[in-house]
Amino acid sequence: MSKTDGYRQYFPYEEPYDHQDEAMGRIREALVEERDVLFEGACGTGKTLASLVPALEYGRAAGKTVLITTNVHQQTRQFIEEARAITEREPIRTVVFRGKASMCHIDVGYEECQALRDTTRELVEKEADIAELEARESELLDASRGGDDEATQARGAVLEELEELETSAEALREERNTCAHYYNNLTVDTDAFYGWLYEDVRTPDEIYEYADEHDLCGYELLKEGMEGVDLVICNYHHLLDPTIREQFFRWLGRDPEDVIAVFDEAHNVADAARDHATRTLAERTLDAALDELDDADDARADPASNVLEAFRDAMVETYESSFGFGDREAVDEEWSDVPIDNETGRDDLSVTFLEHYTGQGFEVDLEAALALGEELDRRYERAYKEGESTTRTDCQTLTAAAFIEHWMAESPDAGTYPIVGVRRTNTGVVGRAELYTCLPRQVTEPLFEELHATVLMSATLRPFEVTEDVLGLDDPLTMAYGEQFPETRRRTYAVETPALFASQRDDPTVQETIGSVLEDTVRFTPGNTLAFFPSYAEAERYYHRFSGESTPYLDEPGTRAEDLRAEFVDHDDAVLFTSLWGTLTEGVSFDDDDARSAVVVGVPYPHLDDRMEAVQRAYRNAFGDGEDDAGWRYAVEIPTVRKTRQALGRVIRSPADFGARVLVDERYTGSHRSELDEYSVYPSFPPEERDEHIDIAPEKLKFAMLNFYSDMDAWDGDQPTP
Predict the structure, then answer these.
(1) Of 7, 89, 314, 559, which is the most exposed, with the fewest CB atoms less than 10 Å away?
(2) H-only helix segments in 176-217
(3) Separation in Å, CA 42 to CA 482, 641, 653, 700, 702
(4) pTM of the full predicted structure?
(5) Domains of the chain
(6) Is the pLDDT of residue 433 over 60?
């Protein structure tokens, strides 16, 4: 059998697209070479199967486990569907893994769960020992009745040991914390569960329901039954969080070099890695740690309190001194940053801490705090296991001391940005310190070096050299497949409206022009329209301005995206106003009339706050060559254009589909590139995509859309007239 035939047997449908077949072959070769892959494919072109099929075939042949991971909930459902389709053709063992919190029947935290497992396992082991001793006692009793004096003597010793074990087991049952569901896991035959589990691809919800019905812990059963599976579907944090990753690989029974990781929506990996590497310490945690130390009868409590209190006081002084007139009163319930840059090269918090600290040396005091914290943490775990506490207490001293140690060691690092934040609570304004990670490759580079290989796939990975630099990839295979469906079935219009700089957005004339373009787009779309804006505020602004006949929907913060999408696609003539930074911009399909047109208003630059400037500086230092502003390009412009490209990809999802994409801002046009110079984003699109931009005057858009959709024979009845 050829290698092509080998991976083709895992392809669940009749024939792959030509580009899919080519991509599968190239990925298969890369896996053999233990080479990472950057794979860009336009939306709807079958990237998932193109990556998964060769990975599964190679993984089974080479004794590897494939992980496919995403941070988009909707994509998890697609992976499950694809895995089920593959299983029907070539049976594979698949586990869909979700966090403990969503699968726990008794709703306890991780540390409490760990303690419950330990005490429950201890009880089961004692009960097994009791059963063994009872069987031995019965044998000795029969022998003693037959006149065996040695058996009689031995029986006495067994009975004594048995009594001690029974007393100990009863104490565990009555006085300590155990989990009934986990107890059943350990004491009943679970073969039926695993038989059911691998008959199909089971969702976490299905596993929860099965376990609930049988009084089992589905989460623990999954952990214990994952070894040697072919495919695991999971979330980013299972790989990007170092602590979770180590445990996860143990559950798999795999070393990192025996894992192939496929990252979906991989343009999000950088931000996700940054989030997982970022550390925080709240003022309330410091207060709790100081209370904890007040109650500690230990000589190390005083030096520990000394250093923690000095850091806490420095934090409060830092944010209080940053407030100008009215600033304190303006603090709301959301965390907001306060400036702590300092000309000394250290941040204001570090400087204030070093100025006010008095003692034998903060390193010495921190060492005492860490040692005492570790001991207190062990005490809390014992107390919970032995039933002295109903909850597993977290050691606040250990948490605070570990953070301060990292803060003082890492804050001068060019890849880490120290931040102080504030928010308002019921008790007033409180603060927190945060070590914000600017360079994602600090997380991803060691991960990619450990794994056998990775496939990072997205519709928006280019420019590849930027992705390679940011994630720390060494000579990956790169491949890009643009729009594979007929160009005649799509149009991309770049409307020559004024550039929507902040100074232009409130201009009534500009708003009138934008509003008119939106209404024309919606009116001349035979189906639903998606309208994306740089912010929720802008989406709401034009939602209220909209006066067309189509049904308008507004996506607002806190709205359940799935419910809104379902309601929206139930119409055949509606328009959805949403933010480009919302959840409907990527990982969500709108097929056929569900969304015939997508319109992007403005260029969705992120909020350029202090931490974004820190990221720019870090990127400039790491990747700049003195000629190009790598900071702006890597941190702002490229991610912004990717957001726009993701939004455009919500329409035209199959060869039979058709639709129009409308970019409303002259910065997207080729004709205005020269006059806009560095403000133009046109050059940041891949060449084949920007070549499709049709520059058009606002008043002519409706005629162009009418002609295009007429050519598609898209109107069921009378078509609108300009």
Answers:
(1) 89
(2) 180-187, 191-197, 204-213
(3) 5, 15, 9, 28, 27
(4) 0.88
(5) 3-97+226-276+452-480 (3.40.50.300), 279-437 (1.10.275.40), 485-711 (3.40.50.300)
(6) yes
